[in-house]
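Protein chain data
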Amino acid sequence: MLRQLLLLAALLGAPSAGDGGVAGLPCVCEAGGTGALSAYRAGPCPRGSREVYFAGVNIFDAWWIGSGLQATHTYDAPSGQRRATTYDDALRQLDSAKRSGVKVFRMFASLFGDSQLHWLQNATEYWARMDRLLDAIEDRGLYVLPSIGSSDWYMLANAASAANETKYDLVVNSSSVSRALALRYFGELVSRYAERRAVLMWELGNELNLACNNPGHFCGSPHDKCYSAAQMSAYSAALVATIRAKDPRRPVSSGFSLPRPYAWHQEHCPMKGDCPADPGSGYYTRDSPAQFAEILAAQNGAVDVWSAHFYDNTSAAPSPSCWFPDCVCDASVLELAASTAAKHGAVLYVGEYGHLSTPATREFVRSVLSTQEGNVQAGGAFKFSTVWAWACPTHRGGAGPNGSTHCIVPSDSYKQFPRESASDSLVQLLAATNQRLNPTPRKLEADDFDLKQGSRRFKADDESAPDPRQLRVLYAAVLLDSSAFNLLTAVTPAMLIALGGGDLQAATRSLAQMSAFSAAVEFV
């Protein structure tokens, strides 16, 4: 009887078949049967949900346009006519994304430069306009990653006062006017939207790390270099603490690019001359893979979602942007980033990648998505991505009459410029990738079980079949002698399926956890 009670407790206490995510790691979860998403700093997913992954898009300018507070313009195709954007342009972006099957997107969630004065001068009106846009996002069943903004608060400080501060002051000086403004805005935004179901996770800002250890004039530093990785991480930690004080559940992404190809050397070497930390090298020497991994971890130390922005710039002038001494710019860089994140208990989010202008760069997009798929299937850390960029009215036509090289502009929602003609194939690729990342869970039926044999009846071509040995553990637990334990007479195959949520893959994980327990109590 004791063994029976212990086994029943193990069965009812085991994670439901549908749970997913590694304990302690950030995860995005889909509620069973509803498609509703939520993200958690530490997995696994709650009972009755499963872990999912996304290949989303950047609708980076939706707030710039939707606010009506920042002057932005677009170009209509095919005429190339320039005009001011309107709120309807922002809604059109959202509608076209939903129509194309997009579910998750990244958006800049503050205005650029001194346009952010609108927040200081009339906060009520500012937040009412953002409320309106969040309502529109929510009404369409979309999910947003607000990239709050970590770089430009010194511009606002200088516009609003006689602060005369720089980006260096923002990052390094915790008592600066710009730092106070950043923390205030982060607190107000997160507090206001922490209960919004459309907010999937938070992001600090955009590519603050690209100025890290650069020559001092890049950030207004009084020294020969900009802020160090340690100084940037301390600033990031202050922003993260502000977020978590208001919302302890959601993960936080850094919003960083991949480190510059020579970021480790910039951190450890003098700007001129030989480098004592790596003899024979210098300030602009490309990092080794080990050095890349070290500086990647140092820059992202304050967050649980490591961000990487990654573009195919091998033909960039005057020198190519590539990594490692042998000049690598392919998806193997992301594989190293993912494995490094995994070793540090974090996940990887490729928040920007793309360019559609040539067949080679379109193939680059395919390689990034293929790498994400493979990494997910292998249980790796590269869980999320958002391609650059969706519709992007503020970029369209800016490159001339042929249109932007950056924008995915679906033909069912917009007339296209010539350079946007590859958009539809990328839309299809994103949809196919998301389907493979998140296959529809196979539902178990009562007649799938042979209770007498204690094994699952599978078709010969059923590649998703769990190990029958694991299933026997479960059957042993529920098919106890009803004369000795009357409570179990009501356990039926249908109830077993309901307990598991019908998710075959997740059921296998739960059964594997139970098998060790059943062996320990020596149930036969």
